[in-house]
Design goal:
Blueprint lengths: L19 E9 L6 E7 L6 H6 L16 E9 L4 E6 L6 H12 L1 E3 L10
Antiparallel strand pairs: 1-2, 1-3, 2-5, 3-4
Length: 120
């Protein structure tokens, strides 16, 4: 996907799929700079309740873009099932904010691919 961060943190050297693989990308702002964070863990127990608390099937409240506004892409590749959401900054509250802040705090920064880089 165009918005996937490069998998630079928590690379699994044994070839096994991590039990937790969550990626967060922030776009927009004054300079339009893209930033990303990723977390991988062998233990899904502390992450599962937070992931399940997010309203994945709800429509975000508000448009994704606006002048000098951030937009967030949240991808959960594991634990199953895979999920993703794109949210405007004003929709990043409650469980969404908790998940993003935890990935940023416990994960590692990654360089997201430029939008459209892997399209086609």
């Amino acid at each position: 996907m165009a918005d996937e961060p490069e998998p630079t943190h928590g690379a699994n050297t044994e070839g096994a799929t991590p039990a937790v693989d969550i990626r967060v990308t922030r776009t927009g702002g004054v300079a339009g700079v893209r930033r990303g964070w990723s977390v991988e863990s062998p233990d899904p127990a502390p992450w599962r309740p937070l992931v399940e608390a997010c309203p994945w099937d709800d429509e975000p409240d508000g448009a994704l873009t606006g002048v000098d506004r951030f937009a967030w892409r949240i991808e959960v590749l594991a634990p199953e099932p895979p999920r993703n959401a794109e949210l405007p900054e004003r929709a990043l509250h409650g469980p969404w904010r908790e998940l993003v802040e935890r990935v940023r705090d416990e994960g590692a920064p990654v360089r997201p691919a430029p939008r459209g880089a892997s399209d086609g």
